[in-house]
Each structure stands twice: as C-alpha cells, then as structure tokens.
Amino acid sequence: FLLGFLSGVRPSSGVLLFPLFLYLWYRHLRTGSVSTRAFLLAQLGGLLGGLLWLLPLVQSVGGIESYLRLYHTNNPMERLSLLQNWFRFSSFAVFLSLPYLIAGGLRLLLSSRKPGFTPPQSWRFPKDFLPLMLWWLFPPLLFFLFVHYSKGYFLICAFPFFAFLGWPVLAGRSRLLIPAVVAAQILVFTLTPYSTPDVRVFFSPEVRSLSLPRVWWQRLRSVYLPTRSHLQEDEKTFRLFSRYLHKLERLTQAKTDSGHARTYFFLDPTFPLNVRSLQAHFPRYGFTTLSLTAPDTFLYYQGLEQEIRSGLTPMLAQAYIFSRSDFVSGPLQSLPKTVWLSDGITVFSVEDSVAATLGTHYRRFFGRSKK
Hints:
alpha/beta
C-alpha cells in the first residue's frame, strides 16, 4: 500500500522502486513467507493507494494527455552533466551521513577502549536483509548518479542507505543509538555555519576560474547546506525580497499610469532564493528565470503554473532584474542600466537597446551545453 500511495504522490518514485517490487514478488514466490491471499490483498491495496492520489491529480489538469504534456511544458527535467549529478548527490550524502558517522564513530571509539575488544559477530548482516536492501538502494542510486539527481529525491532510498552505514552500531543493540544519532543531527543542523559562496560558483565551467574541488566545497557550505544557518540566511533574503517587491509594485503602478510599465520580475542565476517558493508566496506576480540550455527561452512562473516561453530579449527589456550585487558591480559593471534598489541584492533594469547584450552576457556566464 505504501509503495502504491508513494507512486501516486510522485510517479517517478514508483518507477525507481519497481525493481524492489519485483524482488518482493520473487521472494514471495520462492519462500511463501506470507499467504498468497495476504500477498495479493497487499498488491490490491497498493493499486488502490496509488489511484487514490493519481486519479484526482490527473483529473485536476484535464486528463492523462494534459498530465503527460506537463512533463515537457510545465516542469521539464533539468539537463545536468554527470559531474553536476555527483555534486548534488555527494553534497546531500555528506549531511545524511554525518549523524551516523558521528554516533557510530563515538560508539566504536568508546567500545575499542575496553580491554579485549573484538568486533562482535552480530555485526554481520542477516541472511534476508542484504538482498532486500540492495534491491531497494542500488536501482535508484544508479539513476541518481548517472541520469538525474535533484533536491531530496534520495529520501526514497534513505532507509537502506542508513542501514548499510549504521549497521555496525544498529546491530550492537545500543539503547543509546537513536538518541545519539538524533543529538548528532541536531548538532550538525544548529552548529554548521553558512558561508556565502563566491559568485563564480554559479558560472558555467567554460568561464569560471575556480577549481572543481573548490566549487564543490563552496556549494556544500552554501547552496546545498540543510542547516539552521542557511534557513536564517534565506529568511533574511526573503524579507529583503518582500520589501523590494512591494516597493517595485508601487513603482510599477506609477509607470503603468504613465504607459511605461515593467511586467516581469526576473531572478537571475545568482539570486539565492528558489523561484518556486516565491511563486507560492506571491501568486499574483509573474516571475521569470533563465533557461540554461535553450538560447532564446526563459521560464515563466505565476500562480501554480510554470511554462517555457521564447523571447528572452523582449522579456529582459520589460523586467525588473534581481541579481547579487557583486555580480552587478563585477561582470555587469560596464553595462548601461538603471539601478532601482541595492542592498546585497540589486534590482536593475535595462533599455530595449541593451537587453540583447544583457542576454548575451547571461548566456555566456551561465549557459549550459545540451550535451
């Protein structure tokens, strides 16, 4: 039932866990560990669980054809290089692993100090445990590493990952294990400092002058940092953005009355907040972001919608552009522009005659190859 319900919520999860589903069928047919009636009822429950979520979801967008079309028009999969996949995955894996490494390392250190310490036989994996964890872990893991990884998708196989990593301490039956892991996670979450990354971290590999280890380290300590310090920094930026937005709304209204309105709020690739969260907070506004792979397109967000649009240059000419101040005062310094607001985040605009040049700059610094 849980697998079916999960597949209804996020269909890709059902696909990634389908090898595990097949293995459970195989194990049942081989061992008969549960009755056939109970096993088939479980499959029926899973089917119903998926349909309970999937059918209303498909109906809400106008049917199955409209739903499938959204994969190409509403929220297309990013084109990421193998290295970008590894960057994202390894960064999340670091923070998922730290609590177990800390708790397990302390326990092994304390145990090893006892006279006559030897690793107990109970540290071995149970017979049926290992293949179950392998079928659960490795199909999604291979997809994440070699095809696509983004956000928190790894959570669908987090349990087997934790089981492999924490088995030496899990098998020790320590009553302090879970409190130790929780305490370690709290320490990591509360004490890890946020570090504002060098703006060049966001540049395409062809133009940035930073080594790959440095890029990975800076992203680990900033963009991918799931800690209290990062949330506080985002909250600070969000409050600033909210003030900016209301000031620009009044300015836009005044310009509308005079016939010179700017209708877009463009968040360039250096802007630190996620556009989808801003879209939810401010559904009345039309936000845009750069398409990193298609030269003359951009992504448009308003209300609950996201779509790909063409015409990057006309959009930039009608937009208030949000960017990090050090990018505006650095690579964009010589570009003719009007700065409206600036306090860590700069809001500026350009005239029609400059918009094409600005688009060229963005494609040069942030464009990605389709390969």
